Amino acid sequence: MEQLLRRGPSGPLARLRALLAGEAGAEPACLQPDGARALRRHGDAVLRLACAYLHQRAEAEDVLQDALLQYLQKAPAFADEAHERAWLLRVAANLCKNRLSYWRRHPQEELSELLPGREEPQLAAVWDAVGALPARYRGVVHLYYYEGYSTVEIARLLGKKEATIRSLLTRARARLRELLKEGYDFEE
Amino acid sequence: MTLRNRRSAYGALMDAVVVTPELEQRLLEAVTRRANRRPAVPAWRWLRLAALASAVCCVVLMVWSSYGVPPVTTTPPAVVQGGYGPVVYDDLQALTAVLSYPLRIPAALPEGYELSLVQSLPGELAELRWSDGTDTLCYRMAPGAGDISGDYNAYEAEWTQTVGAVPVDCRGDGGRIAAAVWSAEGFSYSVTSDAGLTPEALAALVESVGPV
Question: Which residues span the domain enclosing B46?
Fold first, then answer.
């Protein structure tokens, strides 16, 4: 299965360059797309981001599957693992936005799917508060607070201005503070 | 304790979201299956292909028509042959300029007739008309032999009148010549008159035919 998911060199030009540089037969320096490896390394992060956006586990798993498919069909050779992760997160974010846009046009019945650990009241309150945020806030909050990306990195990843990301974060914090009150634990 | 350091409630919630081995296996199988499936061409792509094909057809037709069909010009053709109707000219010089043969015309016309029309007809047929206000005299010249008068009326009499060494076929009523046709040196000539010409007037006319 892993062999099927592994792609060859990125292209004839890249192979020619490697040959001219005397690297014939050697493993290329860049990271070649490999579906199984990507799933092991970044699957959790992609699934979490999709959960943050969509708040539905099953839909998030579908997004992960779609992102993996796009990875196999379209992914370039990556400079390093961080580049690969950022690419997958960007694809996942776009896929989530597409779904949210579709849901706006075709309203779905709310699914009461529980995340693991949601049974605890405190966790449930936080989950509901984050879920009450607009989707564009949720993605930024997740990437900033959970994945640990800076606003500059999030801006690059989502294709937005840094000022927009800062603004979204500020508004998200205000809404969360309002909803969670003393339970608010988001670092400013 | 803050969310930024991942020990918050949100962090705890998200830490629990993982790709289980079972999910990993399921995803890999599904993705492998989908990756090997021939992608369906979406409808919009078919529409785009159809639009592209239509555009290509239009371009091909335009190119083909520009090469395959003779170009339409507003000026009269240089050679009269191959035209589809009479072409009227301002004067004799304009007509002679487009004919491929030297035009010969009568110099001796009955008194009072003035040139009223200069035109050519398909087959390099040159036609001149003179009018005296009541009668019209039509003279034609064209390469070849045969009746080029275009007069298909039935007359009381048909006879041949010799002018010099040239036999002239005449048709008319009451001794007057309505149509006369003759040939000489590879060209056909004809004269028609609404009022009719006398044999003397016709003889003078035929004898006077010469270069412009």
Answer: 9-68
